[in-house]
Specification:
This protein is of the alpha/beta class. The protein has one domain: 3-Layer(aba) Sandwich (Rossmann fold). Helices cover 41% and strands 12% of the residues. Helix 1 runs parallel beside helix 2, helix 4 runs parallel beside helix 5 and helix 7 crosses helix 8. The mean pLDDT is 95. This is Short-chain dehydrogenase. It comes from Pontibacillus marinus BH030004 = DSM 16465.
Length: 289
């Protein structure tokens, strides 16, 4: 395993949740991390959450890296182009690109079929979770290709192509997996590794708020949803990304759809409480019956 000192990373969508934790863990390994998102201390995004990119950047620096916040709406091409011009000017290089743009939770209308689901919301999900990833990769990959050993990670939900309970949600998450597979094929001769990566039942800030609990008493939420007992903090996927980025043989995973629980068995990392949640096994034994 190698240190990430002198490595430059971009976590696109690092305001909160998995993106924030990934950025912090990359910083923990010594990386310089650009953290992007729409919410700053001066302006909220339509998500109307309190977390900001400045907060994330400060946590990256506190962890041992260097956090650099940049306000970017990744659905706006010119903003993405300007971002990578800034990275090129300031660093001259980029080694790691994490595509974690989402923001689709308030847009997803669970229980509504095609024709019932609001079309504009469904299309906006594709814009944020698919188009934004493509725009970001379009401008980011040329900079990564300049360095041997680059890594691109598509953050998604699930490791297969099965229906995920909502047409627009499924389309977005499955698209992320195929983006990774297709880019892996495109870039195989350029020394760039591209993978998709999913968490399990993510115990994010928004999910804790949804259940009206905190990280300290999160198990109270199992009274509402028993499956929450198998949840994991965002730092679990942060550990997964950190280990992938530090792995000198990461190329062996090129094109694969990976999971936090699977990688915890490969690298033997744990969540912040020392546990190793295994959503795949739990889902098979308790949910997918």
């Amino acid at each position: 395993m190698k240190s990430l000192q002198n490595k430059v990373a971009l976590v696109a969508g690092a305001t909160r949740g998995a993106g924030r934790a990934i950025a912090i863990k990359l910083g923990e390994a010594g990386a310089t991390v650009y953290v992007t998102g729409r919410t700053t201390r001066e302006k909220l995004s339509p998500m109307e959450r309190k977390e900001t990119i400045e907060d994330t950047a400060e946590k990256v620096t506190e962890a041992g890296g260097k956090g650099i916040p940049v306000q970017v709406d990744h659905t706006e091409e010119h903003q993405v182009q300007t971002l990578f011009e800034q990275i090129k000017q300031e660093q001259g290089k980029l080694h790691i690109l994490i595509n974690d743009i989402w923001g689709g939770d308030p847009l997803t209308e669970w229980g509504k079929t095609v024709g019932e689901h609001d079309l504009s919301n469904g299309l906006q999900i594709q814009k944020q979770a698919v188009h934004a990833h493509l725009i970001t990769s379009h401008y980011g990959v040329p900079l990564i290709k300049k360095r041997e050993g680059g890594l691109v990670i598509e953050i998604t939900d699930g490791t297969d192509y099965e229906y995920r309970g909502n047409l627009y949600y499924s389309l977005a998450k499955i698209s992320n997996i195929h983006i990774a597979q297709a880019m892996a094929a495109d870039l195989k001769d350029h020394g760039v590794t591209t993978v998709a990566l999913t968490p399990g039942f993510l115990r994010s800030e928004a999910m804790l708020d949804h259940f009206g609990v905190t990280e300290e008493n999160w198990k109270e939420a199992t009274k509402v949803d028993e499956h929450f007992i198998a949840s994991e903090t965002p730092y679990y996927i942060g550990e997964a990304v950190k280990h992938l980025a530090m792995d000198e043989d990461v190329q062996r995973f090129n094109g694969e759809a990976l999971s936090t629980w699977g990688l915890s068995e490969v690298y033997n990392f744990t969540d912040i409480d020392g546990s190793q949640p295994h959503w795949g096994k739990y889902f098979e034994e308790n949910v997918d019956l």
